[in-house]
Design a protein that fits this description.
mainly alpha, two-stranded antiparallel ribbon, 2 strands
Length: about 200
């Protein structure tokens, strides 16, 4: 089941790679069923998953190659807070890193040879939308509008109605990833709602 998902992948008590830090379903399960095992698993991921740990170096996450892990860390923080946990010590740093990722993608200043995929930007946007729901951070709509404009102008493949999978690929239909549109499209709805 979902609660035990991390264990077969080498995770114990939430000590997982940052790209396995999926707390939202665990939080939802606890809120729906009251199953404290799900609550504990979500809190363990927030506490012990890579890049979410309180011991993570302040310089670890601003790299574009880690935008996915940073987004999952922020979501895990927000989920843990909603489960009654205190605001993590690195909360502001992780938020700042998410904004840095957006700024770098918009300005096309990600590190040379950084391995990141366009769908990861959708994960950052999802984390920032959840942040907006949590505290109404006025920077979120501004940053996501700029990001939406950049993705459409730079990474959209009109011929296949998709975004390119990897930011370094040519904009040809063969490089589109239709299934990943669902990770990107929701923040366009958010931007549209903020503009109306």
């Amino acid at each position: 089941n979902y609660v035990n998902y991390p264990s077969p992948n080498g995770c114990v008590n939430g000590n997982c790679p940052g790209y396995y830090n999926f707390t939202n379903g665990l939080k939802s399960d606890f809120l729906t069923t009251g199953d404290t095992t799900s609550r504990t698993a979500a809190i363990n991921l927030r506490t012990n998953a890579a890049y979410a740990r309180d011991s993570t170096s302040p310089t670890a996450n601003p790299q574009c190659a880690l935008m996915r892990e940073n987004a999952y860390a922020l979501i895990s923080y927000l989920d843990a807070i909603s489960l009654g946990q205190p605001v993590p010590p690195r909360f502001n740093q992780v938020v700042t890193d998410a904004f840095i990722h957006v700024d770098k993608v918009v300005a096309e200043t990600c590190e040379d040879n950084a391995q990141w995929n366009v769908f990861m930007v959708g994960l950052v946007a999802e984390a920032l939308m959840q942040l907006y729901d949590y505290n109404g951070d006025v920077n979120v709509p501004i940053k996501l509008k700029a990001l939406a404009d950049k993705l459409r102008a730079r990474y959209w493949i009109a011929a296949s109605n998709t975004w390119v999978y990897n930011h370094q690929q040519a904009l040809t239909p063969a490089n589109g990833a239709l299934d990943l549109n669902l990770l990107i499209v929701p923040f366009y709805c958010f931007v549209a709602e903020q503009e109306n």
